[in-house]
Structures are given as structure tokens and as C-alpha cells.
Design a protein that fits this description.
mainly alpha
Length: 48
């Protein structure tokens, strides 16, 4: 790995962290116990 690749990697880390923040936040605030599968639910199919 040359110097350019190492520099590019370190410069991309802040951007990758900023991109990950919304997904991590969404996963942490979602109440997973209230979710249920809607496979075969016609209302869910129409909505999607």
C-alpha cells in the first residue's frame, strides 16, 4: 500500500462515519419488539 492509498483511506473515514450516523441512530431508536412480519398482508402490499 503506497502513501496515496493510506492518505485516501484516512481522509475517507470521517465521511464514512457521517454516512453511518443516521443508520446507527435509526437502529438504536427503533422499538424492535413492536415490529411484526407482514408477509401476505394485503394492506402492506398496497401501501408499499
Amino acid at each position: 500500500m503506497n502513501m496515496y492509498n493510506k492518505t485516501a483511506l484516512w481522509l475517507s473515514l470521517p465521511a464514512l462515519l457521517l454516512l453511518a450516523v443516521p443508520f446507527v441512530t435509526l437502529i438504536s431508536v427503533t422499538h424492535w419488539g413492536h415490529l411484526r412480519l407482514t408477509w401476505g398482508d394485503k394492506d402492506a402490499i398496497v401501501t408499499s
